[in-house]
UniProtKB/TrEMBL annotation:
InterPro entries: GH (IPR017853), GH13_cat_dom (IPR006047), Glyco_hydro_b (IPR013780), O16G_dom_2 (IPR045857). Residues 27-406 form the Glycosyl hydrolase family 13 catalytic domain. Belongs to the glycosyl hydrolase 13 family. This is Alpha-amylase family glycosyl hydrolase. Pfam families: Alpha-amylase. It comes from the Bacteria. Transmembrane segments: none annotated. Keywords: Hydrolase. SUPFAM superfamilies: (Trans)glycosidases, Glycosyl hydrolase domain. One of its GO terms (molecular function) is hydrolase activity. It comes from Novosphingobium cyanobacteriorum.
Amino acid sequence: MEGNNPQTTRVPAAKSDRWWERAVIYQIYPRSFQDSNADGVGDLEGIRRRLDYIASLGVDAIWLSPIYPSPMADFGYDVADHCDVDPMFGSLASFDKLLDDVHAHGLKLLLDFVPNHTSDQHPWFHESRSSRSNPKRDWYIWRDPAPDGGPPNNWTSDMGGSAWEWDAATGQYYLHAFLREQPDLNWRNPDVRQAMLDVLHFWLDRGVDGFRIDVLWHCYKAAELPDNPPNPDYRPELGEKHKVLQHYSADQPEIHELAAAFRTMADSYGERLLVGEVCLPLPRLMAYYGSEAAPGVHLPFNFALLDCPWNPRALAEIITTYEAALPPAGWPNWVIGSHDAPRIAARIGEAQARVAMMLLLTLRGTPTLYQGDELGIGKVPIPAHRVRDPQDLRQPGLGLGRDRSRTPMPWNSAPFAGFSSTEPWLPLNPDWGSRNVSAQAADPGSMLALTRKLLHFRRLSDALTRGAFSLLHADEAVLAYERTFADERLVVVLNLSALPRPHPVRGVALVSTRGLPADPVTLRPHEGVILLPED
Ligand code: GLC
């Protein structure tokens, strides 16, 4: 990569100026943000009380993980009513109040839309499983047993085990790509489609600014439900979902027409944003942008940074192949953390998490920042008796647990870190006494201070929010790239190593992950800088 001709990797500046192209999205996991009613679980009123904090970060939009009524088998991703709020989180009235306040803070609000499945406690599923002749039977995917009485095919659930659950009362199996408590909807049934489009209408009419669409690529399965091919690379430690390749159980061609229908609906409300959760290799991911004639979601999530090797050459490869794969009108996006992925600081260490934050906030495209990453929350041990994540409970010992990324926000050094007045549903990060919002707000050298600085710097920079991108340099320790818009030219230089390194570019440092002043000749260990380059 060293000595790369910048012309070959140059990506031009954005032509249009839609709000979400310049925006930074902040993901809130509502159970763990702020409790306001002393039950140890976060809620909407808690979020509302923290809006000043969110706005002060310098982000533009909030995405809320699911807030709908749910038995919480998968912590809200098992929806029992798409058009209401779980009492644990509040009510429709508290939602409306939150939405008004979000807008009053100049922020946007995205909800999580979960179209692939519902809870098994959803009234639709109650009806569907009540008898084979129920009008809603076909709203879910029911099949007779295989000739040996076993499941209809070899599909595995993403949470482990077969994707089929036997229903003795009606003598058929139903399909669930995730937990058995999350039966898959049958999107080939037009009534399902209409009912779910009505759900989008319901929230758009209430004024939400868009949706993050859960497991979008799962919604359609091949009509005949053939066996999936076995995965030749399967190893048990990967988890049972990898036993077979999801060739027929996901990413079917019909999904793009559905994504286009979601998009048409969103566009009919003005500039509303659709972010699609799509975990697929690049060429298949790119198809979710749709075409000019039939646009898909605005932002198919780009998870490439979540599990990549943390070295400059690998990052350069990821960034340039992603940029090169984007369709002409496709706007990029980047993610370094979520409620499903290990914490970035746990994965690469706190010093590099600061570098990762600079990377996230200076690449071309819309970043999504996950709550708590602005504090550099790292490893959080979850004692066995406190494990709550169903994925971990079903496949213990594989390190698949997601609780470690879902621990409560530490706000201050009051009991329970100011998150709640009672024991929270998950443990706090062990260093919450010092790693909390109020301690870091008072420390100019903190991760929070750095995140704020980067977010505010980014806001004021056309080069960072919509400028062109060129890769300048990647060796075994240092990655450098340039962002330009009109006369504005900035260079980002990231030292991914624990040693001092010579600067590949001359210039004046405007921001450093290790604080200013920065040495113009030598990068400090783990230092990232944004430079005004010398010409
Ligand atoms: C998505 C969510 C994850 C959930 C799954 C099933 O991947 O992010 O948390 O378990 O969908 O809904």
